[in-house]
Amino acid sequence: MTDEGYIKYTFDWIKKPINLQSEVLDQLNLFRTKLRELNMIGKIPDGPGFGNISVRSEGDTFFISGSDTGSLELLEAEQVALVSHCDYLQNRIVFEGQIAASSESMSHAAIYQQNKDVGAVIHVHHAKFWNHYRNLLPTTEVDAAYGTPAIAKAIAQKTEKKPKTKLLILGGHEDGIISYGSNLREAFELLIQWYQNMPQKS
Fold it and tell me: CA 202 to CA 198: how far, in whole Å?
């Protein structure tokens, strides 16, 4: 997880409050709290945060947890950004808010742009899950590194094929896992279903 939490994209940051409905923030916090309890979202000791969560807004825009917020118990509106434009092939995004958008915003954008039925994306870290399911579930190439156009493109290609399971192992991003669905509950429950199906020893 050495690169996790470090922004690699180029960006235009519109520093103004975002119009985040309280119900949306409540949903983000509800499922984010459950993921923090499993240490799938958190913070590396003396390092950056890891894991992020997002929900679609209008069109391909989406609300996403801010950069390096993994250590926070709950998010306030000021710790969420609105990504209003993303060109993942050019490694460039435009976002609004009082905090920088998560370093994994490109990966979320790639899924939203290629899958109009997706309403939420969860990116977590879990070593046992990653090691057990790597190459059993859809897995991106090892050379598609974290925070690059290559991984966003690989994610877009994997998800646009409409796999039966909306889970993705990030082969070039150690411990990285993405779950997505029509809403946060669906994405969360899918992740937990596979998590609980892991053998106790592996």
Answer: 8
Domain that holds residue 124: 10-196
Chain segment 26-84, per-residue pLDDT in tens: 999 999 999 999 999 999 888 888 999 999 999 999 999 999 999 999 999 999 999 99
Q: How confident is the model over 132-145, as pLDDT tens digits?
A: 999 999 999 998 77
Q: Is residue 89 part of a domain?
A: yes
CA distance 162 to 170: 17
- For residue 79, give the 3-state DSSP assignment: helix
CATH number at residue 106: 3.40.225.10
More confident residue, 13 or 6: 13
For residue 132, the Cα-to-chain-centroid distance in whole angstroms is: 20
146 occurs within a structural domain: yes
CB atoms within 10 A of CB 134: 15
Domain-embedded: residue 124: yes
How many domains, the chain?
1
**Closest CA relative to residue 66, chosen from 39, 99, 96:** 99
CA–CA distances in Å: residue 66 to residues 33, 51, 69, 163, 202: 15, 10, 6, 29, 34
User: Residue 52, CB half-sphere, CA atoms under 13 Å: how many?
Assistant: 28
